[in-house]
Amino acid sequence: MFACFCVVFLGCLAGAQPAAHPPLAHYTGTRFSMGCAYAIEAYGLDAEKLKGAVEAAFDEVDRIDRLMSNYKRDSALSIINREAAGHPVIVEPELFDFIVVAMRYGHESDGAFDITVGPLMKAWGFFRGEGRVPAAAELEAARRHVGLQHVMLNPAARTIAFDDPGVELDLGGIAKGYAVDRAGAVLKRRGVPSALISAGGSTIYGLGAPPDRDAWDVTVRDPLHAGRVALTVHLRDRALSIAGTSEKAFEVDGVTYSHIMDPRTGRPVQGVLSAAILASTGTGGDALDDALFVLGPERSRSYLRRLTDTQVMFFLPDAERGWTLVRESSR
Fold this sequence. Notes:
Number of strands: 18
Order of helices and strands: EEEHHEHHHEEHEEEEEEEEEEHEE
Oligomer: single chain
């Protein structure tokens, strides 16, 4: 499902100097889509063209929502989920190729990222709900429908089929990042040299840099205190994606259960507060923040060795300081 995790503040580096001549026009816009607020801050040579470019980028996000939402009954993804257990469903090229990419992240992470996780999200009450602990029988029933082995792709015919009526695809763990990438591509095509694109704060892409600066400055929120800043990162043609427990969680008998699910155990992940990923694309960052959050620092290292241009910052619970930061990176 699509969900927001608003953990960053976006804008130019503090103390910016006046822009070089000729001065660049500046435009900031927001639009609600894919279950959260998308925000774009952009600079360009022509104010009207800049505004048109930003609105076109938002239109592209809306298009991705119509294609990949599992909340909209008439979306292409919803049609797959309704029909693929009964017969192979022909899928348009963009969505088919995207599902192939999403499944590749699932296989490469040994199942830590899994787009068939939807039945578990429903069992734990995170789909249109506030969260609950499912009964053992209900959880076991949900787990029987989870796993990429249930999804059969036929690239030649461009079809998708499920081997069980309870299987469904949930692209919410990666689609927002893809929408950020697509919005960035629209801005580039329209000649926008500098923009910061945010999908509800959970995935942010810095295109170029603001006037007279080397990069965009993005602050990451303290995972335990919403009003505090944990660290600052600088984005230039780079994405930041964050998965964390603070946005959607509930507590039962002193145990906190987050919405980030380990598809292999069928239970919410424990022991990690948040994971912030720096990657070259929003798509990659969006998939990897969940995958690496599930794997944790130790088990992430072997996966990171197979990646390029990727950094992860784990915020882990600490009894004395509240949290501690562990950094890992690809080789």
